[in-house]
Amino acid sequence: MIRRMTLLAIGALAVCALAVPAQAAAADDECELIPRTQCFGLESLEASLSDTRAGAHPDLTFIVGVKLDPESEPNVFGLKDAYAPTRNVRVELPPGLIGDPNVLGTSQQCTVQELLTYNEPGGGCPNGSQIGISNIFAYELENTFLEPIYMMRPPGGDVAARVGIIAGIFPVFVDFKLRSDEDYGLTAEINDASTEAKLIRLETTTWGVPADPSHNTERCTAQEAFLGCKSSPPRPPGATPLPFLTNPTRCGTPLSMGVGVSSWAESPDEFDTKFASFPEIVNCNSLPFGPSLTVDPTSHRAASPSGADVTIRLPASEGVNVLEPSHMRSITVTLPEGFVFNPSAGDGLATCSVEQVNFEKRIPAECPNASKLADTEFDIPVLERSLKGAVYLREPEPGNPFRIWIVADDLGLNVKLPGQLEVDKSTGQITAVTTDVPQAPVREARLEFKSGFRAPLITPSSCGEYRTNYQFTPWSGGPAVTRSTPVRIDEGCETGGFKPKLSAGTVSPVAGTHSPFLFTLKREDGEQNPLSLDITLPKGLAATFAGIPRCQGVQAESGSCAAASRIGSVTAAVGAGPAPLWVPQPDKRPTAVYLGGPYRGAPLSVIAVVPAQAGPFDFGDEVVRSAVFVDPLTAQATVRSDPFPQIIEGIPLGLRTIHVAVDRPGFTLNPTGCEPKTVAAVVTSNRGAKANPSSPFEAANCAKLGFKPRVSVQLRGGTKRGGHPSLRAIVRPRPGDANFASVVTRLPRSAFLDQSHIRTVCTRVQYAAKACPEGSIYGHVRAFSPLLDEPLEGPVYLRSSSHPLPDLVFSLRGLVEIETVGRVDSVNGGIRASFEQIPDAPLTKVVLTMQGGKKGLIENSTNLCKGTHKFDARLSAQNGKQLRILSPMKADCGRKKG
Questions:
Q1: Whole-prediction pTM value?
Q2: Which of 37, 45, 361, 711 has its CA 20 to 30 A from that of 818?
Q3: 606, 625 in Cβ contact below 8 A?
């Protein structure tokens, strides 16, 4: 007892491959050697359609013959007995062969109670519920039974539809289920059939149009079936003829149906299965196909987070003589440029794995709610109501990060379709692709992508009409429909300015102490995106580089720097809306800022390493390197960044906040001068705009710093009158004191400037080109600082000046280059050197040596060994304190004079 009918098929999604498990029955010659019940199986299977046109509404007929035991006695029809009674029957219908139980209406569908009371007065199924007829041959029965097939009300659960039949006197239910683990075709099942009569042959026809008048003479009641429906009068169905069965809309692919049976004598899971081919489906080129698409963003405001309501419509055909439009095979939708992924949506986002979605299994998905991107609803006329589901984010794989699941676990169906989001890596433009959609009559598909602060999309940054392009491909093999649909953005159009805000300073700005330095750059939503940054620190804000290894070479390029070179961290916010995504994410890799070596002509660099992580996505590390230039006159540092990443794997970042914390203990050192200063920046946008935000900075408690350096000056050689001694001066600041601001020294009148020894002078042009002639060097200077591992040292030049005499220039070289300029003149006959702009930087010792003899600039006006000759040093600190040192100048008296 079997039924035949095809039914709904689910809308919206994937296709796998037909794979029907089969347990082969024993061959006839083997039946002599094994128990005869094990020879149970199918002998034959035939299937036919009354109309093979694609999308037509044919009658479906199939004939099943069970293997007969040649040693059994023939029954009254001359038929042998089956090897065993049939227990379970399974019919696999080809995908695309669709039945629509809803054309009968609920009032015409038979209830279980009505079927069971078929032999009672007033009982039995409604006349209009008959959808076909089945001729049943059983060995024990003296008659064949021509039985009506009734459309039942579905029981729910995983049963998509049900038909019923009275096989002789036995009610039989045939349940239809979706093969969501294979090809999304339908499987009809009879389980635990009666053992009272052995099935030997079944001939079943399901009508393509049950209410067609041609079937009026075939309609009969279950009681009339005892007489073979021969005495039943013509019965109209009492309903308008509507198509019930519909052919697939795919041509050129062989179709087959499979029937498997198991017996009561063997395991119920051991099926003997046969396949029967259908006639080829033809005439696909005659099928209509006219889908359309609308896309409506949930926000029409420029540069704002947005979801989207997407609707696909496929017009229906009406009438039994009209072909069903081709089913949709593939969908490609390309959003307009400017509609891009919103990084904010990544916060808290999860994925759904193959195991969680229960792909290719007939059980519901178990995707985390945090992986849901959209709600879906599919209008499929063969279902009792719209099929509801969701779109989930699928686990990324290398080179393919944006994958989705389209899932519908509803109405007893389990649909899981993999999809793809293709993102242009340079523009962020999104194309959604879904292929091999199940062959089903979907009339409308609605997808509602979530809105709100963490909506998955960002609207374009300017108002206007945009076009969504789409291409829908039919199963018929006909041409794809390629069109576009408008999308308007017409709110919040005043975007695109560029006025980022800067906040910067040390945590504790106590003068002369170490404290972390914090820097924050913010831009408002809708403004242009920062591309690069130059930040100039205030005078005197210094860093202790001593003892810190530099990250260089390949490690600097990749950001794989040693922990010993770490000086801080970065926190960044990206995305649109009031709730951007903050990086680093909790429990993810931390960010880091490292001290790097020379870079782009600068002596030092800063390497920021930020993991490109958001929710389930990990695109590695983004490395932004910044060159650190030091002003040679003020020792101010300017950090000049490389371009910030604007788009990663097709996701525009939309930098909202960049927060840098330089928090290595003992690294950042406050100035010792407390006059108001600024942290100044030049920020360039991705559209070329420039902004100059700044932040005030002021150290505190400068007056508490002392200032008591030691200074000694010694002349060597040439102590007699007219001699040209060399000079050695040593300055030893006291640790913890305020730094030097200026120094004015005057030698005694006994030492005057011999201008005749001023021969070669370096011009400013030569100095800037680092091409001073050797002859312009008149001394040497070394400066030791607790900030550096090695002292700065270099020549002392005479350089051309706007003053009457050349300037004395200390050219200090080492990790950084510092230029200290002294104006030279004569006061009361003595030599004076005024260094009026000394950088606010700590020193431990400075040693100055000036040449004597033929290159000596100092000439004695008297014998230095006679009398006391004092130098006069007037010293000023950055905190305003001053100190005068009037001290005897040492000379090489007591030695042989040169």
A1: 0.84
A2: 711
A3: yes
